[in-house]
Amino acid sequence: MKVLEEEPRVEVTQGAWSAAQAARDIVASGGGCVAQEEPFYVCDLRELAARHARWRDLMPRVEPFYAVKCNDDKLLLRTLAALGTGFDCASRGEIDLVTNLGVAPERIIFANPAKMASHIRHAASAGVDTMTFDSEPELLKIKQHMPHAQLVLRIRCDAASAQCPLGIKFGCDPVAEAPRLLKLAAVLGLDVIGVSFHVGSGAEETEVYARAIQYCRALFTLGAALGHARMRLVDIGGGFPGGSGTSIKEVAEVINTALETHFPEPGVRVIAEPGRYFAAAAYTLAVMVHAKREVVSVSAAGGEETHTMYFINDGVYGSFNCVLYDHQQVEPTLLYMVGPCARSARIATTILLANPAVKQQCLHCCVSAWRPSSEKPQPCSIWGPTCDGLDCVLPAASLPPLQVGTWLLFKDMGAYTLPAGSNFNGFPLPRVKTFVDEALWSVLKEQSPFSECQFSVGRAAPPSLPCAAGAVRDPAECRAVFVECALK
Ligand code: PLP
Predict the structure, then answer these.
(1) What would the DSSP string read from start to end of 341-400?
(2) Catalytic residues
(3) Mean pLDDT for the chain?
(4) I need a surface site. Which of 105, 164, 285, 357 has the fewest CB within 10 A?
């Protein structure tokens, strides 16, 4: 049984900070690599708020219903609820998770076209009326268990290419199948209120949204002729990019134009089910190299070749399941390195900051006494902590030689990572440390569901770096973090 305890704390920060800085503080507050050995996430709530604002700016007509499956971290859900999004739930468990936060059932769409009967009955008792379908048996099941459901027909319209195609599993053909389903729903007296689609997660084509919206229009017209006079919802699904450095500007232009062309009437409500867009960039994963192995082999030319295997404390059975299931390309950067310090050379191993954004600093003597490694990157591979040979995070990487105790950062790890991770071989999933700045927190805490939480206020100690007596620390390195809320 996977137990991921909710970290019931939001750390409210003062002044400028980055996820890398926060991660460095966490490692340092554990006394460096010795005490702090577990992987962890830094979640930056500012990223969620910025993405929400950008979405509203670029697609004011489209209401986001966050896809809970992408990352069900409760603080993320609470934050999106406080910002005003709706939610796309795929199961009874997800419906409970979201409604237990105090989200009204009208803000939920049950967007799984193949539902268990008991889950349909549960949705009915929770007041979640809106749900998708894409087959005759599903219509008959809904007629039996929830005849008053507000139905949304899921059609198939695939992007030319996508990180995770979904059309292979869900969505009826908009021409060959959809008319028949609309007719059957009318015969059964079921209320079809709209049409939905999902072009594929991590879609690599933008024009596909225009094609899909055009299909929706045609089906609205047909639906009205068949007796579904009150069709009023278009659900444009997910598929939006989420990594840092990506943008939804181009896809928003395509969607806005298609909506203006095909659905100019303001009475038609438009929603979307973004997952990756919100979650990916808000989470940065910090992992430690806890073991390494030099593998020497004979090259084709007859000489010796060395390849280094690095073992880190999270792998494909944990967060990096995204490499297998979500086909993610992950890339490490250095956070902390371990090596001899130029100033206190007598100390064999000293923890060294390796964040290029700040000046290099030895944590032992607390002065800028270390220079980045000038050694050339070497071929290496990165492996997870379990005893399974499948547990390989990166089979072919190139990094400067690393010592055991080095910390690595992986950016953009918020989408399709934690929810599918396991405790296989006894390794816990990383905890999430959540940060927010004072200005955003002052807004969020007034909104439901935060406004219904009880808070206790505390002050986080600055990182307890192992400073030598008398050494002067750069005050910026001792940035205080306020711990301000404990959520019930
Ligand atoms: N909606 C449905 C029905 C999905 O199945 C998914 C992902 O699998 C999503 C939304 C979220 O998609 P994305 O993360 O690409 O935005």
Answers:
(1) -SSSTTSS-EEEE--TTS---BTTT-SS------SPPEEEEEE-SSS-TT-EEEEEEEE-
(2) 387
(3) 86
(4) 357
pLDDT in tens, 35-75: 568 999 999 999 999 999 999 999 999 999 999 999 999 99
Tokens of 178: 């959809």
Would strands 378-383 and 304-312 be described as parallel, antiparallel, or unpaired? parallel
- pLDDT-derived band at 373 (thresholds 50, 70, 90) equals low
Nearest-CA residue for ligand 1 atom 12 is 238
Contact 239, 159 (CB under 8 A): yes
Rounded to 5 degrees, what are φ and ψ at 248? Answer: -100, 10
Looking from the CA of residue 238, the nearest atom of ligand 1 is: 16
pLDDT surpassing 70 at residue 165:
yes
- Best probe residue, ligand 1, of 63, 68, 69 (max atoms within 8 Å of C-beta): 69
Contact 36, 27 (CB under 8 A): yes
Q: What angle do CA 458, 463, 467 make, to 5 degrees?
A: 140
Provide the ipTM: 0.99
Confidence band for 25, pLDDT divided at 50, 70 and 90: confident
- Tell me how crowded residue 348 is: count the other CB atoms within 10 A of its CB: 9
By most ligand atoms within 8 Å of CB, the mutation choice from 51, 172, 201 for ligand 1 is 201
What is the pTM assigned to this prediction?
A: 0.91
Encoding tokens for residue 223?
């639906």
Question: 220-253 in b/e burial notation, b at 16+ Cβ within 10 A?
Answer: bebbeebebeebebbbbbbbbbbbeeeebeebbe
Q: Which sign does the torsion angle of CA 79, 84, 88, 93 carry? A: positive
Structure tokens at 158: 């695939």
Q: If you compute the radius of gyration of the chain from its CA atoms, what whole number of angstroms results?
A: 25
Residue 456 has pLDDT above 80, yes or no: no
Q: Is 54 helix (H, G, I), strand (E, B) or coil?
A: helix
Whether 197 lines ligand 1, by a CB cut-off of 6 Å, is no
